[in-house]
């Protein structure tokens, strides 16, 4: 039986101010022992864009979006999203989401 409690996902920092050309790094972690995948999204002008995901320690960034993924997606590990070359279109809300990889097969 699955618990109906919400999974706690922690994202830091809550706000980043970067100059053009710099990189910005966001960290995400969770406390769920059976979750092994973290997905990163960017919300801009009402659109949600998948930036990529981390499965255990394997990274799968979407091509051409100027982001790097790192770290690990398992419990208590830090998963990182790096926006490599900050510009005006980088201004957005970024989300991370954690899930169990086996959920995708159900």
Automatic annotation (TrEMBL):
GO terms for cellular component: plasma membrane. Residues 7-106 form the Ig-like domain. GO terms for biological process: cell surface receptor signaling pathway; immune system process. Keywords: Immunity, Signal. InterPro entries: Ig-like_dom (IPR007110), Ig-like_dom_sf (IPR036179), Ig-like_fold (IPR013783), Ig_V-set (IPR013106), TCR_beta_variable (IPR050413). The keyword Signal applies. Pfam families: V-set. It comes from the Eukaryota. This is Ig-like domain-containing protein. It comes from Oryzias latipes. The lineage of its organism: Eukaryota, Metazoa, Chordata, Craniata, Vertebrata.
